[in-house]
Amino acid sequence: MPRVTRLLVVLGVLLGGGAAGAQDLAPFFVQAGCVDAAGRPQPGMLPFESGCGRPRPLAAGQPLPYRKHDWPAEAEAAALPQGYQASDSLLGTLRGRRAALQSFDFADATRAFARRDPGDGGQAVVLDPGGAWAVLTEDGSGGRQWFQGPRCGQRALRGEPDRGWLFALAPLREGWQQRVVRLGISAAAEACPAALNPSLTRWRMLRLELPWRDAGGPPRAVAAEVLLSEHYGGAGIAMADHLERFWFARDLGLVRWERWENPARSPALRIAAMAALLAASGRCPPVAGAEPPGPGWRAVDCRLWTNFARAAPGAMLRGLEWP
Fold first, then answer.
1. What's the rounded Cα separation, in Å, for the pair 150 and 171?
2. HSE on the CB side for 128, CA within 13 Å?
């Protein structure tokens, strides 16, 4: 295993002595590339490697020095070294607001990476001062959907969605912070949902050993500083039927997602079978923060986007153009 390189930055330095509420959360939601002394991108260099002296946020639409792919199942790793889905976390805008654009780019027998195919999509995370909210998502099952909150009617008059799916508020700290938000889904930014549902949302800072690999290579680990965010299908853990959990790593953006079900309340079928299939796949090695949120909860789905495809000199990579 190569020498582990630290990504840790003291939060006090990050804040620069300014107001706590003004902390910029973008470094956790946007992946960075490395530039040389002349400001030129270094193809193939990852932001946590020792040769990366000057990480810089990567913007939507620009050539990429690397792409983040998910881990394939162990039984398919040789045949599918780049996994099933690529997901880049790039800095852009959405309806005039600064946002992290996190793509979901599939490849299989009929679909290809870096090409817009049926089922591809992503999520847009608005990076307002002091907080981060997903306001738009798109996938193969639900299509394009907007997350809306209690002020939907008033904000929709200005053509903006309400805050949306909360991930975290500043200032970040290691202990849990939480808020119960009310959330609904609409088909357009200007539309309001028929109903809003309560969701316990909580977040904290976490330092962990993050598994990673080069596409087709052996597993390794790097020390990472992570923002962990949890979104429950209910106003409290015990009364929720499911959980979606996200890891956002400094300079890498979204690196892991998990779906958990609470068999005591969930209407989902075959929970035990899905949990057993996921555990046997090896797609998501254990990490800190991946523990059950309560007795009986089962993890039924997961993706880990730390399977890196590196650009070669003179041949930078293209990402998925989304949204």
1. 24
2. 13
3 state DSSP class of 285: coil
Sign of CA dihedral 79, 81, 82, 84: positive
What is the domain count for the chain?
1
Strand bridging mode 197-214 / 307-310: parallel
pLDDT tier at 2, thresholds 50, 70, 90: very low
CA distance 88 to 66: 9
In a domain, 1, yes or no: no
* Structure tokens that stand for 109 in this block: 């027998």
Residue 162 has pLDDT above 80, yes or no: no
Q: Enter the pTM of the model.
A: 0.90
Range of the domain at 81: 21-310
pLDDT confidence of residue 155: 60
259 assigned to some structural domain: yes
The whole-number pLDDT of residue 156 equals 53
Q: What pLDDT is stored for residue 114 in this prediction? A: 96
Burial (Cβ within 10 Å: 0-12, 13-18, ≥19) of residue 277: middle
